[in-house]
Each structure stands twice: as C-alpha cells, then as structure tokens.
From TrEMBL:
<dbReference type="InterPro" id="IPR050227">
    <property type="entry name" value="Rab"/>
</dbReference>
<feature type="compositionally biased region" description="Low complexity">
    <location>
        <begin position="249"/>
        <end position="262"/>
    </location>
</feature>
<feature type="compositionally biased region" description="Polar residues">
    <location>
        <begin position="238"/>
        <end position="248"/>
    </location>
</feature>
<dbReference type="Pfam" id="PF00071">
    <property type="entry name" value="Ras"/>
</dbReference>
<keyword id="KW-0342">GTP-binding</keyword>
<protein>
    <submittedName>
        <fullName>Putative small GTP-binding protein RAB6</fullName>
    </submittedName>
</protein>
<dbReference type="InterPro" id="IPR005225">
    <property type="entry name" value="Small_GTP-bd"/>
</dbReference>
<keyword id="KW-0547">Nucleotide-binding</keyword>
<dbReference type="InterPro" id="IPR001806">
    <property type="entry name" value="Small_GTPase"/>
</dbReference>
<feature type="region of interest" description="Disordered">
    <location>
        <begin position="203"/>
        <end position="272"/>
    </location>
</feature>
<feature type="compositionally biased region" description="Polar residues">
    <location>
        <begin position="263"/>
        <end position="272"/>
    </location>
</feature>
<dbReference type="GO" id="GO:0005525">
    <property type="term" value="F:GTP binding"/>
</dbReference>
<dbReference type="GO" id="GO:0003924">
    <property type="term" value="F:GTPase activity"/>
</dbReference>
<dbReference type="InterPro" id="IPR027417">
    <property type="entry name" value="P-loop_NTPase"/>
</dbReference>
Length: 272
C-alpha cells in the first residue's frame, strides 16, 4: 500500500490537504472489479430536506440553518452490499422552479432516483407527481425510483398520511419509505435499500466507464475523501472562474440571476 498527500484546491484562501491511500496495482485491480458504480439523483420541491438527507448519509450530521441548494451538489460514498461493493454517486439537486429545465440533464444516465417530500407539506407531496413524471419521461422504467417522506420528527404537524403515500407508491410502482434527516431515522437504511435495488451491469461488474450508470471516468469528477467535503462541489458559486459563463452568485441567498443554461452545459460536459 502506498500513501500520498494531495492538494485538492483552495477556497477562501485556504487549501484542503488529504492523505490518500493508494493500493498496489494487483490489489487495486481486484478491488475495482468488485465495485459497482451508480448515479443517484435526489429530486423534490424546495425545503423538503434533500440536502439534509445527503448530509446525514455522508457525515451523520444535521444543519439547523437552511440554505437552498443552487444547481447541484455532488457526493460519493461506498456501501458494501452482499458480495459486491456499491459506490453511490449522489446528485443533490435544487428544488427551485427556475432549475426545472435542467432536470432532464441531471437524471440522464442515472440508475436511481429518490423523490423527496415533506410529510408536513401537502403541496410538496402533490409536487412529487411532476418529479416522477419527469423521471419516467426521461428514463422510462430503466431507473429505480424511491418515494421518500421526510421529517418524521414533526409527526404532530403531519398532513400526509403513511397510507396515502404508500398507496401512491404502489400505483406508480415505487419503493416507499419515511425518514427523518434531523434524527437520522431510516436514512442509512434508505441508501442501503437503494444500493441493494440497483442492478449489476450486464457485462462489466465494475461499472467503470459505463455510460448506462451515469458514472463514466471518475478521474474527471469531484470526489469526497472520507468525511472531508470537496471544496469544488458542482454549484455555480464553486465553479472555476473561466467556466461560470456569466453566472451571477454571491454568498447570500439572493442568487436569482443564475445563468442556468451555462451551468447545465458545464455539468453535462464535466460530470457524467
């Protein structure tokens, strides 16, 4: 085994140093053969808790302060499942209406989709119909879809019953779960069930370079090392200056002037 240190990049004048363990060639070849890579996309209306679910899954933390996702964030984590290892490339998408035109490019080549609603918001539940229809229109029946009700910690404010959501899931042939990102309830189980439900590639168990699973060449993608979040996750404010295509962003929440077409071109060309 070899260990090297790499400088991932700078953000706000500082750098992130990460020690990366690199196995010998013989062991890395065997490990790669056992890894199946899949692209997973989270969809849902704004404020339903998509980012909180991903943060709980990745780092087992919960941020009380809400900040809307702009564009997408990208995460990667490996889960052992039965006799294989599944690497989930998780795309956390924005729920704002102005980003809806980008959804087809987000879900293209995805293996699974998690459609999230807030059990205390009927509007967000009704909104899942549109998200599911968009996934079906782009991917047909070739993608695994989970319908997930978030905020189980707010049972006293519940307006969408478990029975109603379960009935909808059965009607649309979806996997249904209820979770709490705040408490961590069922979050790990959610992503494990997704990993278990995803198919093996037909002719290449590693999934490396396969367009069908939306992963492609991992060397061109942002990554997460351990629990240190990559400072260059794919959101407009974090794009290299030369790639922003006129995107207007700042550190506040007043980021309404994003050039979404330019951002779509960036994500489509650089990731998956």
């Amino acid at each position: 085994m070899h260990q090297i240190s790499s400088l991932m990049g700078k953000q706000g004048g500082g750098g992130v140093n990460a020690a990366v363990t690199v196995p010998d060639a013989s062991s890395s070849t065997a490990a790669a053969a056992a890894v199946v890579k899949h692209k997973i996309v989270l969809l849902g209306d704004q404020s339903v808790g998509k980012t909180s679910l991903v943060t709980r899954f990745m780092y087992d933390t919960f941020d009380q302060q809400y900040q809307a996702t702009i564009g997408i964030d990208f995460f990667s984590k490996t889960i052992p499942v039965d006799n294989r290892t599944v690497r989930l490339h998780v795309w956390d998408t924005a729920g704002q209406e102005r980003f809806r035109s980008l959804i087809p490019s987000y879900i293209r080549n995805s293996s699974g989709t998690i459609v999230v609603y807030d059990i205390t918001s009927r509007a967000s539940f009704l909104g899942t119909f549109k998200w599911i229809d968009e996934v079906r229109a782009e991917r047909g029946d070739s993608v695994v879809i989970f319908l997930v009700g978030n905020k189980l910690d707010a049972q006293e404010k519940r307006v969408v019953s478990t029975e109603e959501a379960q009935k909808k899931a059965e009607e649309y042939n979806l996997v249904f779960m209820e979770v709490s990102a705040k408490q961590g309830k069922n979050v790990k189980a959610l992503f494990r069930k997704m990993a278990e439900a995803l198919p093996l590639p037909d002719d290449n168990a590693s999934g490396i370079g396969k367009k069908g699973n939306g992963v492609g060449d991992s060397s061109s993608q942002p990554v997460v090392l351990g629990k240190q979040r990559d400072p260059f996750l794919l959101t407009p404010s974090r794009l290299p200056q030369s790639d922003r295509s006129g995107l207007q962003t700042n550190n506040n929440n007043n980021r309404g002037n994003d050039d979404t077409n330019g951002f779509a071109n960036y994500t489509q060309g650089r990731c998956c």
